[in-house]
Amino acid sequence: MNITKENIDELNSVITVSIEKNDYEENAEKVLRDYRKKVNLDGFRAGKVPMGMVRKMYGKSVLVEEINKLISEALSGFISENQLNVLGEPLPNKDQKPVDFDHQSDFEFKFDVGIAPDFEIKLTKRDKIPFYQIQIEDKMIDNYVENYTKRFGKVETTDKIEENSLVKGSVQQIDKEGNIVKNGLSHDDVMFSMERLQQVKIKKAFTNKKIGDTVDFDVKKAFENDTEIAAFLKLKKEEVAEINPNFRFTVNEMSNYIDAEINQELFDKVFGEGKIKSVEEFRNAIKDDIAKTLVRESEFKFFLDAKEKLVNKTNLELPEEFLKRWLSSTKEGSELTEEKMKDEFPLFLEDLKWQLIKSKVITENELNVTEEEVLSLSKEVALQQFAQYGLSNVPDEQLEGYAREMLKKDDDRKRLYEKKLEDKVVEYIKENVKVDEKEISSEEFSKLFSAK
User: Fold this and answer.
1) Coil, strand, or helix at residue 419?
2) Is the pTM of this model over 0.70?
3) Is residue 239 a contact partner of residue 232, using CB atoms and an 8 Å limit?
4) Residues 8 and 57 placed together within one structural domain of the fold
5) Residues 225, 189 share a domain
6) Is-contact 89 326, C-beta < 8 A?
7) What's the CA gap between 359 and 421, in Å, rounded?
8) Number of C-beta neighbours around residue 152 at 10 A
9) pLDDT per residue over 207-233, tens digit each?
10) 366's torsion region: left (phi>0), alpha (psi -120 to 50) or beta?
11) Which of 18, 192, 211, 396 is the most buried (most CB within 10 A)?
12) 104 in the same domain as 160
């Protein structure tokens, strides 16, 4: 077997794999002998089918399989031994001559390969990247306080229906004269929120009603759409169009959701018992939490700007035509329309350039991630997940247990490892450029993303 490489240009090469009969003959014969032992054919005992018949039945498929194995091993070994930094996977050359497995004994296969460019990363303090420090405004703290009072509020029954009440009761279908429809639609346990009633007149009819009171109303005028009506009357959505919409509602129960008071009980629920003693401390603790969230947002924006800076600065050239062919050959790429490919290919190129830059930074600076660092990041992620459910006071033992369980999942471990490694690349960039700190409002910061 002979393997050669022809450089078309700096980014494209053709690898030729030449295979002779003696490269595959022995293995192919061994496979056929194994087939002979197992094949069942009428008129012959097991293992006694003539080899000629076995070769006729399976020879071509075995030949193709053995040659494909040789090609795969040859390409992989050649790329590794010659330290070729290939992009994607080798593709059959567009000028590959047809192969006749029935009559040929020697074969030649040509493969196109895309080569990653050689480049240097030169960063100096003249390279400036902004780092946005987002101002913490009182309205942010107010929003957090309001969210906590709602999250830890409670439902209380009332003696009359109010503007935001949840109302439970029974309904009976009525005719235009207000008479109960015989065998009409009725339910003893329905409910709705006053906030969902659309028509002001109907909302006023329910307001201040008490247990036992009744209200006649048109459900199609009361609720916004057929989905809500179906849920209220316990019907299928498609059944709503055919019903008589007039009903009598009898009030059985009403309740209101009451926001929690801003007191010691709320402080303890949010941050743990006894940790916060006053409204001022409560707001300061919330401010600290906001600051941590905003730092993550600032770091993410810095990452995007650093990525854009290095991609533009290195200005890498890639074998675009080869990459389009390769991307189209993948399962994901084959499902893309021509228009979609046109839209997404530039994004693919930008991401590939960043991957090459990132890999070079990691290799040249011998960056690595320890088990302790992955566990620490896993705990951070776990804490953020708990915080989404209002649990900001999670014991360390429980947090670490949750983090370790997360790391038992291969996909999660890989994702966290790669995130930590990328964080180290960003830290390297920070240390080698001028970080231009800028104070900015949250509104202005949001506009930075919408401007892209």
Assistant:
1) helix
2) yes
3) no
4) yes
5) yes
6) yes
7) 10
8) 15
9) 999 999 999 999 999 999 999 999 999
10) left
11) 192
12) no
